[in-house]
Design goal:
Bound molecules: zinc ion
Helix content: 40-55%
Mean pLDDT: 92
Shape: globular
Radius of gyration: 21 Å
Order of helices and strands: HHEHEHEHHEHHHHEHHHHHHHEE
Strand content: 5-15%
CATH class of the largest domain: Alpha Beta
CATH topology of the largest domain: Rossmann fold
Number of strands: 7
Largest sheet: 3 strands, parallel
Number of helices: 17
Length: about 375
Amino acid sequence: MDNIIIYCKSCVTPSSRPRIVFNKNGICNACLNSNQKDNINWEDRLHELNIILDEHRANNGSWDCIIPWSGGKDSSAIAYKMKYEHQMNPLLVTFSPMLPNKIGNENREALINAGFDHIYFRPNQKVHRILAKRFFIERGNPKVAWDAGINVIPVKIALKMNIKLLFYAEHGESEYGGKVLSEESMRSRDFTEVIEHQIGDDPRNWEADNVSLRDLNPYIYPNNKELNDAGIKAYYYSYFRKWSMFENFKYVKKKYNFNENPRGRTLGTFQGFDSLDDKFDDLYYYMQYIKFGFGRCIRDTSRFIQNNHMERKEALELCHKYDGEFPEYYFDEILKYLDLSKDDFYSIVDKHRNDEIWKKTNEEWELKYPLPKK
Ligand SMILES: [Zn+2]
């Protein structure tokens, strides 16, 4: 990271976002990539998608693809399109949120009622808590093991049930600013990239006195040879159809009874329709703010700007109002889950404050390079 943090001149993402790159005009690669979308021939991409689907569509009534599914607007939009627009027979697979909440459960139930088969996997909570606490302390991220689980379980089920096709939502690195390894990495999912960028290391390394190899089974990815031999392929839907989280929201809203955060907006941001099924999410995004100096409102408004749903001026106002809000709503439940006292919690948070980003003045933490007013 450079010593001075700059913010993209088109969206509001800072240069402290891991792996983001700015051009000489101060525009981030997520914005540049989103401009590229206008040059893509989406008819050709749809044709490409249809070829893949035709190859896999089952004629004998069995499931022909797996959608790793949270119940949120993006994976639900894909599931709905697969079934009702592409005439596939998808099986939805969910790795349970860490602390599921009511709205998430209701939204999952609503899509299942719209005509879907579903497998819900809930991992051993004794081990999941140990890992959540360990990674919150070590990496300031309680969701590392969860991230591994959501990647692993759908693929393990695909192997076991001999379903050769998986569809993921979007390629995060190209959509939101990051490192794009190749054109192919935006199309089909490369798990090495996921381990490196999302999880950080191989979960086989997580064995410890209180965690055995057997305990880690939900987090350990099948080996590549096994997947190749079985002919399993995983793709990103965002490569084939133009991606917008807001369009996905409008789509699910129209198709079935998908509901937003009953409190109107989610803590730390202006919107109430994205990433709303896990009580841990407020803490997760707060820790991004602590570690990288930007929270959920910067993330969300940047995506809105990139998809032409918001002006930068409005984004700046919203971010000054909401970015970095403390996760107070589920705070007590989170402390209980992590088995931490308030004092422990605050000292872990402060340990993850990067001193290139934060300074302490009058006993208050302040960003050294805050988002400009305009
Ligand atoms: Zn940008």
